[in-house]
Amino acid sequence: MAVISTARWNGGSREAVVALAKKVKPIHAKYGGDLRLGQVHTGPHAGQWLFEITYPNWETHAKATDALAKDEQHRKLRHEMSGISHMDDRVIVVSYDF
Prior knowledge:
By secondary structure, this protein is an alpha+beta fold.
């Protein structure tokens, strides 16, 4: 079972968003998360960005959430992202292996 946190951001140039994602990815990896970045190409959210962080389980997700709130570099980068874009939505999905 994986826990996947997906945030949908609206705005920001490709260059700026990708550059920030490259800086944020190793921070999430340090706490057990795997960050992926995508851009919506169809539908009502076309052009928006999806930041998807996958954790192996709820325990890792909880520990990472706590650690990220205290991580000064992460907070700085998130603030930088908020200056070029804004988060429209965030969902947490649990995937099941069968």
